Amino acid sequence: MSYKIHFGTDGWRGYIAEDYTFDNVRRCAQGYASYMVKRGKKGETFVVGHDKRFHSENFALAVAEVLARNGLKVLLTNGATPTPVIAYSVVHQKAAGAVNITASHNPPTDNGFKVRNEFGAAIDPDGLYEIEDLIPEDVKDVKRMPAEEAKEKGLLKLFDPAPDYIAHLHDLIDLEPIKQAGLKVMVDCMWGNGAGWFPRLLAGGKTQVFEIHNQRNPSFPEMSRPEPIPPNINVGLKATLDAGADVCLITDGDADRVGVGDEKGNFVNQLRVFALLAYYLLEVRQARGAIVKTLSTTGMLEKLGKLYNVPVYETGVGFKYVAPKMLETDAMIGGEESGGYAFRGNVPERDGILAGLYMLDMMVKLQRKPSELLDLLFSKVGPHYYDRVDRLFSGERSAREAMILAADPKTIGGLKVTGLNSTDGFKFELEDGGWLLIRFSGTEPIMRVYTETTHPDRVDSILKDGLKIAGLV
Fold first, then answer.
1. What is the pLDDT of residue 443?
2. For the structural domain made of 385-469, what CATH number should be given?
3. Model's pTM, two decimal places?
């Protein structure tokens, strides 16, 4: 019997050469093509792109061959391309969707198959289930046209998506003040698709941009995976100190997420970055509109919402929930705990490049370094402290869920439990306005235990109690 492919948060990810094979990638492509043909999209254009992982360009070509044989026109990127650039290309090219070969922040052993709709956004859960159901059981049922034939028939073209995306960025932000500010910017590209973008965008002025990990290396040396959180970013933070840089911007493997290090070599966690970006839009740019957040991110956003009289909507984890809510509410910003942020005026997709530029613009406009920006934020909403523990788990997920529910804790980390939100995982609300969340990864056999609290001395004890509730200690 053939391998059963299951779609998670963004699509499918697998272990290269074990389940992530050319045959299975072609099966996924056939499922996506069938889904789009059912929606009357035959003859329309689709963007196909890839990251710098092992064989990604060849997996992308295999996808293009399947889409072309199904009567879909393919624009194939001419090289490794950031996910946000692919997403923007969908809109700019008036395409009907996209397939992106990337495993984002996963370990080097993995690769992935991301799917997007006509907005360049994540396809909603019902659509993902339908694509999954349309994946043929046997590769013999996959339609495929050789690339050269597809090119001759006008069904496959190579294109450079960079110029149009860069022109779009200039519509969203004036880069000249950043170029002339004289900043020293360290960029950790994490061996991924973000390499070269900030130097290209900010060249020609007094600001200097330095890059590390900017070559292709699918083994991702000096980190366990290209995920912009410690300890993967420790080398980048040290390089920031060594260079005397004002800030460190860290893009993940496909550059849809961003991490930030301050001028002292300290990591600014993802929740704080989300709140800083929202504050930047509200205060510096005087923007108004909804904020969309996943339940795993910061309560500082609700406080900012009250201060500036804007609505805040909470969703399940993943941009398959965030993107539709952003479109529904014309949201100003949307984001998640993993360091992915999307902005109105752009596509409803995470964009680590634009988020990094907004952070730099905030530094220039407010004339503050990152640690000083945090002080300013905390003066508005109070200090908030966050941490997360990821653990592999075995056994049935349902048994774990039953165990968590049965625990029914009255206190966690010495704080009274005031409520339980089970929209996506188990979020225990705490008396200080903080929370503990236990949830299962949508892409890996991992349980995540997260907390945010206003008490810096309670973070460890909350996480320890969370691990006990989850049966992980």
1. 66
2. 3.30.310.50
3. 0.94
